[in-house]
Structures are given as structure tokens and as C-alpha cells.
């Protein structure tokens, strides 16, 4: 197996990781920004006001996109299992 093909595998793994993480984190970041603007506009400095909406948004994102995330991981894993003979031999 050539080093270029291993780099391609590593690049694909990083792409899958970035997609999965961004699907979970980005909604929480957007909600956090909205809450931060609201807190700045109203001068409310309550820590739980910023934490709870982000937590709920992250849980909701996991609930709604969990199937897609698991499917992406399974597809990548199956692709890696299919490539075992090429990597070894």
C-alpha cells in the first residue's frame, strides 16, 4: 500500500469527524450567540441562562441527527473493513 492511499484514508477519516462534530456543535454555537446577544442587551449575567439552552440544543441535535451520524460512522467503518486486504497485502 502506498503512502498516498494511507493519506487519503486519514483525510477521509478527518472529514467524517469534522462533519459529525459540526452537526452537533454548530447549533449550540448559534444558540449560544443568540443568548449572549440577549444577555448583553438586557444586562442579565445569569450563567444558567447561557448553559441550559445550549445543552438542550445539543441534546435536540443529537436526537434529530443521531441516525444520520451513526449511519455515517457505520459507512466509514464498513469502507475501512473492506479495505483491510488492500492495506495488509
TrEMBL record:
Q: Which organism is it from?
A: Shewanella pealeana (strain ATCC 700345 / ANG-SQ1)
**What GO terms fall under cellular component here?**
bacterial-type flagellum basal body; plasma membrane
Principal place where this protein is found? membrane
Q: Which residues cross the membrane?
A: 12-39, 51-70
Q: What is this protein called?
A: Flagellar biosynthetic protein FliQ
In which compartments does the protein localize?
Cell membrane; Bacterial flagellum basal body
Please name the Pfam families in this protein's record.
Answer: Bac_export_3
Q: What is the documented function of this protein? A: Role in flagellar biosynthesis.
Q: Which GO annotations describe the biological process of this protein?
A: bacterial-type flagellum assembly; protein secretion
How does it sit in the bilayer?
A: Multi-pass membrane protein
Which key words tag this protein in UniProt?
Bacterial flagellum, Cell membrane, Cell projection, Cilium, Flagellum, Membrane, Transmembrane, Transmembrane helix
What's this protein's family per the entry?
Answer: Belongs to the FliQ/MopD/SpaQ family.
Amino acid at each position: 500500500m502506498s503512502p498516498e492511499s494511507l493519506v487519503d484514508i486519514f483525510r477521509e477519516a478527518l472529514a467524517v469527524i469534522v462533519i459529525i462534530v459540526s452537526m452537533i456543535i454548530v447549533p449550540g454555537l448559534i444558540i449560544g450567540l443568540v443568548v449572549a446577544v440577549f444577555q448583553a442587551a438586557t444586562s442579565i449575567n445569569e450563567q444558567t441562562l447561557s448553559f441550559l439552552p445550549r445543552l438542550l440544543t445539543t441534546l435536540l441535535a443529537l436526537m434529530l441527527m443521531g441516525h444520520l451520524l451513526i449511519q455515517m460512522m457505520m459507512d466509514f467503518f464498513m469502507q475501512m473493513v473492506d479495505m483491510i486486504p488492500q492495506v495488509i497485502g
